[in-house]
Amino acid sequence: MKPPFLAALLLPRLPFYYGWVVLGCVCLAGFARQGPAVAVLSIFVVPMTAEFGWSRLEIAGAVSLGGLMAAVASPLLGPLLDRRGARLVLCLALLGTGFACMALSLVASLLGFYLLFCFARMIFAGPFDLGLYGALNNWFVARRARANSIAKLAQLSGLVALPVIAQFAMNDGGADPGGNWRAGWIAVGATVLIVGLPPCWLLLVRRPEDAGLAADPRPPGKDGTPPAAELQFSRAEAMRTRAFWLLALFTVLVYPVQAGVSLHQAAHLIERGLPALAAATAIGVFSASSAVASFAVGFLPHHWGPRGPMMAGALLMALGSAALIGVASAEAAYLAAAVFGLGLGAAITPLPVAWADYFGRESYGAIRGVVLAMQVVAQAVGPVLSGLLRDVSGDYTLSLIVFAALAALGVAAAAMARRPG
Hints:
The protein is about 75% helix and about 0% strand. The protein is an all-alpha fold. It folds into two domains: about 15-210, Growth Hormone, Chain: A (Up-down Bundle); about 235-415, MFS general substrate transporter like domains (Growth Hormone, Chain: A), CATH 1.20.1250. Residues about 175-180 have low confidence and may be disordered.
């Protein structure tokens, strides 16, 4: 497949590996991906419910439904990614997200909101995940973990910036926190299109072989032995391996913990008697520690592989969940949140690397698409399970015990998930 025109002009002139240009495109697309993120939607909850009289449950339902739609679509999109590359997938995702977000400024009914936001949320959970990591894993082998960590940090920066952009547009820089929510959606959609679409359309190349290049080679072993050859599995071949199902098991064990603890953490801390400000600060500690771990795991020695960080991350998630049970002070809450956040970043960031390292680049999209469906469903289960157990027992203790146990089982799954071959 021929590179885009501008990329073809740049390729012979650049004094460095073109994969870094691809990483830049992925970072900008990952920043723009956050348009329909829950943190962005949270800015619109109060003004939209005030205008239309919707319940919070009705708005939250769009998040879950969009995720379930992604679970259906992801296995179908994976083979398209392998055939046509990430450029097509990401450009369509950016166009769909940008226009859907801007169209949300026109909604006048709950049905209209569901049609647009569920569509955007489906793109967020499916095509974006496949396209972003498919592009990186095609271009990077030896430095795959580092590239994925940098891309993850860019996505987190979008999660910080886009709610601010939306809020500023809503109140036009003034003091009214509700303001014109319709202007906020227009600003979010325009940011998605302006930041993400041009670089992906003009510069993204499917894989290094399309440009006459080779992916960065694996380094030799510590004793100077030649690096292991890159494995290449089809989806059917991968699904016949023990490693596939152990990585899938790790995914469905840790993602309910991630979603369940993240959503209900503040409510649990407030129920434990902490002031709302302390609970909000603990969320900030959790987010910051997760970002630090996500970035740091990319710079671990390559020969360590993804299993070590995944095991350590799941263990820290288990310890952090258990530590949240008995918090009685702000300091204890900050410590538990930091431990859980470090574990989350360390456990989840290496997963796309593991799939590419274990099964190769040729069928990454098809393989990852199957597991992404499991991941999205697992994420949807976590908050529901936590809320249900809280309603049954009266507090979040039982749900945190369950989450600690799931994360501990994740340690065992990661330990057994060895690279096939």
